[in-house]
Amino acid sequence: MVDGLRRIGRSLYRFIFHGSAARTAVCSFAAVIVIGTLFLTLPFSSKARVWTSPVDSLFTATSAVCVTGLLVKSTPDHWSLFGQILILGMIQAGGLGIMTMGAFLATMLQRRLSMRFEVVMTDIVEADATQSVWVLIRFICLLTVLMEVLGAALLFLAWRASFPGFWPCFYHSVFHSISAFCNAGFSLNNDSLMRYADHTGVNLIVCLLIVMGGLGFVVVSDLWTYARWWMFDRRGKRPRLSAHSRLVLLMTAVLLVLGFVVFLTMEWGASMADAGWKKRMLTALFQSVTPRTAGFNTVDTSLGALALPTVFVLMILMYIGGSPGGTAGGIKTTTLGVMISSVIATLKGRRRAELFSHSVPEETVHRVASIILLSLGALVLGTFLLLVTEQAGLELVAFDAISAFGTVGLSVGLTGPDCAMTAVGKLVITCLMFVGRLGPITLVLSVAQVKDRAAYSFPEEQIMVG
Questions:
Q1: CB 367 within 8 A of CB 282
Q2: Are 386 and 425 in contact (CB under 8 A)?
Q3: 88-106 burial, b for 16+ CB within 10 Å, e for fewer?
C-alpha cells in the first residue's frame, strides 16, 4: 500500500515537474483549487456552520485562486472568518503564483532546487536570458509584500473613522489591499466600494494597487532599475527600458485615458447625473482602472444602470485585461499592442511588425494571433453554453462570460450572491475563469507532447485572404 502510494507520488511528480512549464502551472493552480474547494465545503467555513454546495465551493475557490472576484455566495454574509481568511490565502497564492511562492520559501529555507525546477520557474515568471530567475522571484515577493503592506496602512488611515475598533479596520484594510494588488475584486462589503465613491483617498489607493499589480513584475523591475539610477547613481550608461516595458506602459496609459473619457462622457448625464464634479471624476477614473482586471466597483453595474455604450467599452477593457507577468488576466495589453503593430505593418507594406524601432519576431505575431483566436473561441463556446443553460439575455451572458475569462469580477446580474444560476452554468463560468487566468495557450501546451522544432519547412504557396 505504502509502496504503491510512493510510486503514484513519483509518477505525479515526474508528470508535473518533468514536463513543460505550462503543465506545472496548470497542475499547481488546479491542486490549490481542489484543496480550497474541500475546505470551503466544510461547515466551519460558513457562518451558519452548514455544508456549502461543492459546486458553489468550487466556483468560489476558482474565483479566488484565479483572482477573479465573481461570486455565488456573499463573502461577508456566508463565509466565516476562517472561510474569508482561506479565500484571502487563495487570492494571495493565485495572484503571486503558487510556484513562485514555493520557490521563494525554498530559497528562504536555503533548500537546493533541481536545475529542471529552475528551468520551469524561468518559464513561469517569464525571465529573459539576462535575468537571474531567483533574483526576479525575490523581487516579485518583496514587491508584493511592500505594496500590500503600504496599501493596507494607507487604507487603514483612510478608513479609521469608519470602524468602531482597531481590529475590524485592520482586517478590512489588509483584506482589500491584498485583493486590490492581486486584482481579485473580492470585498468584505456587499456593495463592493460603492459607499466610498466620493472618497479621494480610497479611490486613489485602490487604483494604485490595481495598476501596480496589473503592470507585471518585469515592468516594475525595469522601472525600479531606471528610477534607482536616476535618483542615486547618475553614473555610467543610463539603463534602458525594454521594448516590452515601453509597450506595456504605452498601452496601459492609452487604455486608462480611453476608459476615463468614455465613462465620463457616456455617464455624465446618466448614472452620474446627480453626482458632484469630484465624484464624477473619481468614478470615471476608478471604472477605467477596475475592468483591467480588478472587479471592484463604485457604481451600480447591474443591467440597465449603465448606458449600453459604457457596458460595451467595459467588455472591451475586460477582454484586453492587464499585462503579462502580473496579477491581471485578459489577453494582455502587449497582445493588443503587437496585433496593432502587425496591422500597421500590413497597411504600410512592411514584412515585419515593428515597435520602438525594433522588429517583432514572427513567432510572437503568430502567438498573438493564436491567443486572440483561442480566447475568442473559448468565449464563444462559453457564451453559447450559458445561453443554453440560463434563462438570460445575450448582453447579460456575454458580459459575465467576458468578466470570467478576463478574471475581472464585474457582473451585470448573471452571477452574484445566491444567484439563480444552474449548476451547469456555474461550472461553465468556473471553466472560463480557469482558462482566462492561465491562458488558452498554456492549457493547450500543458496537455500537448513536447516536441523539438522541425528542421525543415514546406514550400510556400499563396492563399487569398481578406
A1: no
A2: yes
A3: bbbbbbbbbbbbbbbbbee
Written as nine digits, the cell of 133 is 530567475
Burial (CB count within 10 angstroms: exposed 0-12, middle 13-18, buried 19+), residue 323: buried
Q: Which residues contact 444 (CB under 8 A, 6 or more apart)?
A: 374
The structure's pTM equals 0.89
3-state secondary structure of 26: helix
From first to last of the 466 residues of the chain, give the pLDDT tens digit: 666 666 765 665 565 555 566 677 788 888 899 999 999 999 999 999 999 999 999 999 999 999 999 999 999 999 999 999 999 999 998 887 644 544 444 444 444 444 445 544 454 455 554 555 667 777 788 888 899 999 999 999 999 988 988 999 999 999 999 999 999 989 999 999 999 999 999 999 999 999 998 888 788 888 888 888 877 776 767 778 888 899 999 999 999 999 999 999 999 988 888 888 999 999 999 999 999 888 899 998 888 889 999 999 999 999 999 888 777 888 999 999 999 999 999 999 888 999 988 899 988 898 899 889 999 999 999 999 999 999 888 999 999 999 999 999 999 989 999 788 999 999 999 999 999 888 776 666 555 555 556 666 778 777 777 6
